[in-house]
Fold Amino acid deaminase.
Amino acid sequence: MLGTTDSATSPNFSGPLKAFPPVPDGITPGDVRTRRPALRDLTTPLVTVDESAIAHNIETMRAWCERAGVGLAPHGKTTMNRVLWQRQLDAGAWGITVATPWQLSVALGWRIPRIMLANALVQPAYLRLVSDALRDTDTDTRIVVWADSLRAVEIMDAVLREASGAENAALGAEAGRPEAAEAAGTARPLEVLVELGQHGGRTGARTHEEAIAIASAISASPALALAGVAGYEGALAHHGDEASLAIIRGYLNRLADLDDALRDSYDPRIESVIVTAGGSAYFDVVAEVLSPRHAPAEGREVLMRSGAYISHDDGFYRGITPLGRSGEANFRSAIHGWSTVVSRPEPGIALLDGGKRDLPFDEGLPEVQGVRRFGQETLEELPGASVTAMNDQHTFLALPADSTLRVGDVVRLGLSHPCTTFDKWRALIVIDDVRAEHPLATDVLYTEFG
């Protein structure tokens, strides 16, 4: 099953969930698996997740990585769903990437075996949490973080050494060995990747020399282990033209040069050296430049961090995905919005009952994909209709003057940007196949956003 209704991952929500009809009609999250209600029986606004597309996308990315000769540590921030993360792991992913210390804590709670925080970790409370995880003898979770400054290394070293010292002192006192208080370092070191950036980009050391200095500081700390290099190319370009691809290649070659410079400095205590880059827009260029470095049998792994592929979209990622450039079997959008017409105040305007609180708008407005007439189940075309604006709880449609769209009809919307789709919903309805004549709801997918 795509989602889950198990108590371990189903929060005890205090109110009714969007998209579930109120009593007495009563389709509860727990009913969905057994009753498999028709899509038309659910209320709007609604976002659905297409199981057939999710399965297709996971397999498409797995096969692509295998052909390209790279590993995958998919970004979990897209979905923040334990079941989807596990499906990615089951398909061969190295581990899960997270974006924030809080997401790291969720991944630790979900017992993800390998976790990469694609960010600096400088908050003392979360460093102490990581210190506890590294000393936990019941798990061998591999935790990898990034650093792009000497100050970040200084903070990590100080907090981890302090945390370990306090723990060792307590253990020493229990055992009647106060000398244990002098021990420093964690049971396992925290693995750190040097992040290389570029002027005009996001985070990351701006020069080769700064990155080398950061690596030296990591190596000097007994609590840390220099484990590789990292970067993010997606902020450097936003198109798939040759000029944009040249910018991406130039940056990735700089990352490769940094890896070469640090080859003799990597910590022997680590499981493998990691070279990581690759969002959802340029993973083909990442593989082109970095895949020769991928040699797991020799303790070296090139890991992409693409995350949006799992659901794909009908907007930004559809337009920039490398599979669209290459002509290979492409991903399919697994996310769709459904919204009811609640007003036809003028001949050329309709207002829908879903807005910015329900549907993404930061990477492009939703696109109209069809209409389900009031009381009907099948989808019809809706020619000439387009989304022109969104309010918090309404979406504006522009229509031809002779449009037959009526109040009560339900419009299907293609959505742009998965990351700001999932985080608007505590629970999303899973349907079997959006292409089916009569789609059925089959499961519920719960998200874990703070």
The domain at 29-50+330-446 is CATH 2.40.37.20 (Lyase, Ornithine Decarboxylase; Chain A, domain 1). The radius of gyration is 24 Å. The mean pLDDT is 91.
